[in-house]
Amino acid sequence: xxxxFRLETEPLDSFKxxxxxxxxxxxxxxxxxxESEHIYTNIPVDSFxxxxxxxxxxxxxxxxxxxxxxxxxxxxxxxxxVTESNVTFRISTRGTPKHAVVSFPAYRGNRGWxxxxxxxxxxxxxxxxxxxxxxxxxxxxxxxxxxxxxxGNDPVxxxxxxxxxxxxxxxxxxxxATFVGASKGSNIAALVSQHFDGNQLILCNYSMDIQYRIxxxxxxxxxxxxxxxxxxxxxxxxxxxxxxxxxxxxWLYSEDDEISxxxxxxxxxxxxxxxxxxxxxxxxxxTEWDRITAIVRNRHSDF
Length: 303
Fold this sequence. Notes:
This protein is α/β, with parallel strands linked by helices. 26% of the residues lie in helices and 28% in strands.
């Protein structure tokens, strides 16, 4: 069963925790400072759970069944997206495509967002004659790194199928495609990129150890959900090393981001170019946008 609920409080003076108990299994969620509405969705449970919060609040069950729940706010944002099999995405074109940009979204952050599932709009790269494919990570409470959908199934095969079909529709090959993601999206980009040869890969604030990041950044609810389905973490550094040894890979990282980098800043590979930034994790992608755009444009000027 997937359980979704809303907790209403007075505006919080600090970040607080809310706990959900499903038998001997627990989920822990973050409640945002200054916020009064806290929504958590698509939590996999065996039976109707209990919710524990130390303070005055109003509790509402939003859904408790075997269907994915989305708030009205999220449904409105998803109006221009397509869901096929277990992936959600948008495809658009400009001109007659000679190349493609495939994008994967960052994590919105810890707290009970009414609309937690974002999209990195590939169209932002503003290239002529381009196929754009933008994926969402609409799983569990706030995304799963594409490690599972909300029912324990792998979304990567469906994403690969969507990309292959779209490339074929416009007589394009993987060599004419750029895969790009920021933070969580960079790990998803690398995960999907393994199934293609010759594409350009741009990784911004890539996490070399996903489990370590989840442990250190208040996402224990995701670990609980993945554990519920028996999902194991992939070796993110191994994927990074394999991809950068066989295709053009660009890694942009924040210099002081130990949680993501895990001391790998000096790593080198045959096709890897690295870029250090003084900007913090949450700001680096937007601050380095011109550099990222130049990397994409330089690649596609060859076609």
